[in-house]
Amino acid sequence: MLQFIKHLLLITFIFVITSCGNNIATSENEAENDNVIKAPTQLQYEVVKVYTHDTSAYTQGLEWYGETLFESTGNYGKSVLHKLDANMQGIGKKINLSKELFGEGVTIFKDKIYQLTWKEHKVLVYDANTLQKEKELYWQYEGWGITHNDSALIISTGGSDIYVVDPNTFAIQKTIGVYNNYGYVSDINELEYVDGKIYANLYGQNEVVVIEPTTGQIVNSINFSNLLAQANVKYNPTTIDIGYVLNGIAYQPKSKTFFITGKCWPVMVEIKIK
Known about the structure:
The chain has helices at about 1-35, 225-230; strands at about 40, 45-50, 60-65, 70-75, 80-85, 90-95, 105-110, 110-115, 120-125, 135-140, 145-150, 155, 160-165, 170-175, 180, 185, 190-195, 195-200, 205-210, 220-225, 245-250, 255-260, 265-274. The protein is mainly β. It has a domain at about 60-235: YVTN repeat-like/Quinoprotein amine dehydrogenase (Methylamine Dehydrogenase, Chain H, 7 Propeller). The strands form 6 sheets. A 5-stranded mixed β-sheet has the order 1-20-19-18-17, with no helix packed on it. A 4-stranded antiparallel β-sheet has the order 2-23-22-21. Residues about 1-30 have low confidence and may be disordered.
């Protein structure tokens, strides 16, 4: 009888140890799964409308301000800031940048226009209603893309970092490293802030990524490789100049649509993300 009890206790002990081991392994596996970075979910879109776009406009930045679309263009001696109406026709006065400045991204925050320059470390600040230039601010890095949230500006510099910046002093408040399941992602360019997420096009690629700003993780991706074909454009601008790449993304809250174009593209395409 005693031998039987010892045998029963041994079986019970083995069962308990095995169960604990399985639980530990399961917990470890669950923890591992929690740490796996998920690949971005691919989003689809549909073309809403196609507009004519000025092929001399080397687009660097786009942003809606009410019913007006502001466009910043680049190239030395040709950089401008101008306004377009709902039909993509130029309206009002055009600001020509001095020939030593290369225009870059643009955003409008609290009725002030902030226009970046590429390598000149200057940010041009204008009154959004009069286009009167008010001042220049210093930016320590190259200027690429710019947008804003409710309290600060957000700037890209062509690398994998984007910066949350004080709009008055341009002091950096936060640095966000942008990454996906393969690692850090560089060439972050034109930016747009929509519903708590940062939309960014990757320079030289027909792709817009959606970034979670609290972590820097790319959660969604949109492939625009067929955008021009869907817009019935019969040629690819990059066959004319390799630099004529997709570059320009602006969200219109009223219609909940995005306006997409590129450097010297013949069209501006309004799309809705599904």
